[in-house]
What we know:
4 domains, Hypothetical protein af1432, eight-stranded antiparallel beta sheet, Four Helix Bundle (Hemerythrin (Met), subunit A), 30 helices
Amino acid sequence: MPFVTNNNDGPASDDSSNAGPxxxxxxxxxxxxxxxxxxxxxxxxxLAQQDGPKRxxxxxxxxxxxxxxxxxxxxxxxxxxxxxNSGFAIVAVGGLGRQELLPYSDLDxxxxxxxxxxxxxxxxxxxxxxxxxxxxxxxxxxxxxVPQALQVxxxxxxxxxxxxxxxxxxxxxxxxxxxxxxIRRQWRTDIRHRFGExxxxxxxxxKRSGDIAHRAEPDxxxxxxxxxxxxxxxxxxxxQLTDGMGSLRPDSxxxxxxxxxxxxxxxxxxxxxxxxRPRESLRAQDADEIGAALRIGDRFDLARTISxxxxxxxxxxxxxxxxxxxxxxxxxxxxxxxxxxxxxxxEGVVEHAGxxxxxxxxxxxxxxxxxxxxxxxxxRTGLPIGAATLSRLADHAPELREPxxxxxxxxxxxxxxxxxxxxxxxxxxxxTGLWGRLLPEWGAVRDLPPRDAVHIWTVDRHLVETTxxxxxxTTRVSRPDxxxxxxxxHDLGKGRGxxxxxxxAELAAQIGNRIGLWPQDVALLSEMxxxxxxxxxTATRRDLDDPxxxxxxxxxxxxxxxxxxxxxxxxxxxxxxxxxxxxxxWKASLVGELVRRCLRLMDGEPLPQxxxxxxxxxxxxxxxxxxxxxxxxxxxxxxxxxxxxxxGPGMLSKMAGVLALNGLRLRSANARSHAGSVVNTxxxxxxxxxxxxxxxxxxxxxxxxxxxLDIGARLDARERDMPTPPQVGDRxxxxxxxxxxxxxxxxxxxxxxxxxxxxxxxxxxxRAGDRLGLLARVAAVIEGAGASxxxxxxxxxxxxVVDTFGVDLPADSAQMRASLxxxxxxxxxxxxxxxxxxxxxGGAGGSPGAGVPIG
Length: 855
């Protein structure tokens, strides 16, 4: 059933039985206007009641204006012979057609006639239009037969959309019904050919008018997230392609589409009343008065309301356009197209028809981590989350227990590490109330307008943008997980009436404990938020040549090099996400110099060391042979795989490759040797379902050792079979298997002088985006260069890997290291190419200015 609004933005119902003459608006205190000049005077008197008990609210004002104009048109129509069965009808479109007439809106009218004589048509039209013109009432009019109107609508998109709002006012109601029924049948029939034009028209409008949610003076009617967007959804509903409501419920942020639309319409009504003219862009000087009239608050409260409503509308439009595109009627051979396949993306999550949806076996009520798995899968693949999936999660997904299981934290980190691709999934979760369920503290900053004009985003969007920028810097730091978490939380203390850094530090500690960070990491995250302004404020306000300047920073940070590098990256991401020109070469050079001076005052970090073997691992290694064991862990979808085999070339690569071929994603790994055997322990997460039997993995490992299983070729084939990202224009949205957000880095950590062992291995650390079978590929490259991996410690933090190898080089030299580094970088995901974006300058996707070197 089409979504048809009543006193909202949408076309009138197909049922025209209630569309006859309206009663006199005597309840408003005005006498029925006898002439067009009386109509003008009645409007003027109505709008003059700005204060007092007789002042109508926005909705009441619109209704009385509709009553006044309906009554005048009905009376005038009867006077000039426009009566039932007369062959003439007065039809309203636009605001009057939708019964949403604003104080200074134009009258949009059609005089329909049943192929009457030209002289008679001219006489009736002059008698109707001239009084309105003489009274200086803004009028958009046309005179047509029903076939003429349908012909115009078939070729003119603007006219077609206007007539979809048609409502009978006076005269021959049968004529009006013929027009309304005909225009809607024609629209449904032609929508397959006209859908692209409708979308292009909307995008052109958005480009001209901008995004309401993030604009200083938003165009409430034409901007993205505005009133015309809801009209477009209603037009698609008439075509029976979407209902426009999707997964939004009344208890969602913004109250759902209907509530958001009504609020924007009320704000636009008050804008007309206060401005005294037909204005669509809300100016800052009118905001306080409009907020007071609607009892919203001051201009900041009004801006927050507008942002909330516009984001609700924007989300609904994205959903409606996607649903409509999938529902377009098929013709010819396209009807024979096979139903789309369901491809596994994660446990309980699949891709179907270009959307991320729940698997048939998924039970949201028993799987609290499903929300984050769905969101991270959407961000990794660039696919939107299905509306039905969001509804099921909102209705049935339980709260995550505290502290969160490691799997949920990992999925959150994957989501936050996907750069600009995280924006849409987070927005979808936020509009449906799921993001606030994960982070209840988010409500205080949702749609919170900035107090500083240099900020171009609301506070919550600024946090997401900062995280997107931070995800491009994860390979600069040793703790990429804390970097993206700190970016997401750094301004969470705003809007609470106190120093946001101090309040935010307390909130960060609270959240860190909830999501399952280790205590030392909770303290580090809290310190990040507490001191996120320290480096830029010190670098730009104090003398860097003064030794006390760097010393004060070192003292404040407790001498932590890890915290310093995190704050340096966060300072750059925060500035880039603030607005254009906030981060540049001058600021970058000052912060970089401050960081270098602080590093000289700090002690070095301890060198990485291999993990010791457990008693069980020692016993299995001494038994010899090939052993594979799989044990459960605390997480329901995480397993520990122990693999032991006689030492030999390429064992780490072969073991990691076999796991990857079985769809086991690597969370962490420890590779060591003992008694002539390699002892490797992997913590893995199956892509879907349970891991295979240990015997099957052992059999494949034996085939790999014997050379009967080409792991590299099999990995390449599996990667080619991964879901294809959606197309947007002439480019693809995201290719997580091939591109990373941050550029990869290879670091060489020199060993200390060891008197007991002069041939100690050099330490190689790889920081890069994750990829299917990455550990297998990197280990194969190292071992193929003639080097041997004595030990390895592998960690996947979200979408970034930090892999440390103790490597024995055959001939350690600068040339050897450079050659090995080049070979490693050839198999890791390169940074994603720059994308063209419609975002304002400084939005996520570019990184102007110099970065702060760390490490």
